[in-house]
Amino acid sequence: MRYGESDAESENDAIVAGVGLEDGELTVNSDSSDRGDDNGHPVHRVLSFVRRSGRLDDRLRRAREKYGDRYLLVASDGAGSFDVRPGFVLDASLVACLWGRSRPLVVEVGTGQGENIVAAARSHPEVNFLAVEVYDPGVAHTMLLAGKADVDNLRIAQVNAPDLMAVISVGTVSEVWTFFPDPWPKMRHHKRRLVQEGFADSVRRSLADDGVWRIATDIEDYALHVHEVMDERRDFSNSGDLVVSLPLGHVGKGNADEASALPHGDFKESRRFDGRVLTNFERKGLRAGRVIHDFTYRAAGHHEADRPTA
Q1: Could you give all domains of the chain from N- to C-terminal order, each with its CATH number?
Q2: What are the pLDDT tens digits along the chain (310 aa)?
Q3: Catalytic (active site) residue 221
Q4: 21-33 b/e with 16+ CB inside 10 Å = b?
Q5: How far apart, in Å, are the Cα atoms of 266 and each of 2, 97, 229, 246, 262?
Q6: d(CA 246, CA 264)
């Protein structure tokens, strides 16, 4: 599920709080600095999703009305906002309160229609699950599936994922899943990809020692991007046991066919994660002939560990 199920080319839908369009380029309005408010939350920042105008059909609207109180974690800064509300901190005590008991917590960033995380919640009642998604129909459909399955170990946060990960207390999470994030195919939009140094910092901080970040993508250029961000970090170790060949240079929308002619290098990746169900989204990618790249990065060292410097 692409985070926010967004289409980077749907420029008519690319209007989100703090973001505008200039000559087809997504931009952050006003101040584009990374400064935070008094509570340390980012104010103006590059977002990794666009708001889509997905309306709820009657079935999804009823599901949201019926199950919203049961599954929605109230973390946003008001109706219609994807910002995390000031002062919100997700720690072990809040997890125990909201889920009803202390159990390992798995966070899936970009749950799409909820197929994967609801299946996981059904199969593993001994684990707490948190779905992070901004797209309204996806949130409602996740509630529908969860309600039909009557799972009680799942909560849903409809907020910007980097903001949420930044306010999770150290060591609270056992695993983070990021399956098929939006690829942002245009070269000038690669900076908006979810997997970035800052997001990786927040993921590592949230993970318990020996915790795991699982990533999957069906975009070859995004796979190279993941390796560039993650493989040289000292606070994660790549647990992959497969060797794959990838182009050593980036391509984007319009020149992707040039990738095969670029010099290639070998990288470590993982076998398909058994805990990820084959969703409609992944099935479509396979039918289109795309190769799925799986990554398993295990937390290494301690939270204070330094990353290599240039």
Answers
A1: 3-299 (3.40.50.150)
A2: 443 333 333 332 332 233 332 333 333 332 333 434 444 554 445 565 555 546 899 999 999 999 999 999 999 999 889 999 999 999 999 999 999 999 999 999 999 999 999 999 999 999 999 999 999 999 999 999 999 999 999 999 999 999 999 999 999 999 999 999 999 888 898 999 999 999 999 999 999 999 999 999 999 999 999 999 999 999 999 999 999 999 999 998 878 888 888 999 999 999 999 999 999 889 999 999 999 999 999 999 875 544 443 3
A3: no
A4: eeeeebeeeeeee
A5: 26, 46, 16, 7, 13
A6: 5
Catalytic residue among 136, 163, 182, 221: 182
Q: What's the alpha-carbon Rg for the chain, to the nearest Å?
A: 19
SS (H, E, C) 166-201: HCECCCCEEEEEEECCCCCCCHHHHHHCCCCHHHHH
Is the CB of residue 104 less than 8 Å from the CB of residue 176? Answer: no
Tell me if 205 sits within 8 A of 168, measured CB to CB. Answer: yes
CA-to-CA separations, 103 to 73, 129, 158, 197, 262, in angstroms, rounded:
17, 9, 22, 28, 47
Whole-angstrom CA distances from 41 to 135, 166, 176, 193 are 22, 8, 21, 20
Task: Tell me if 155 sits within 8 A of 72, measured CB to CB.
Answer: yes
Q: Where are the beta strands (DSSP E) in 182-284?
A: 207-217, 236-238, 242-247, 264-269
Token pair 């190769």: residue: 291
Strand partners, 28: 19
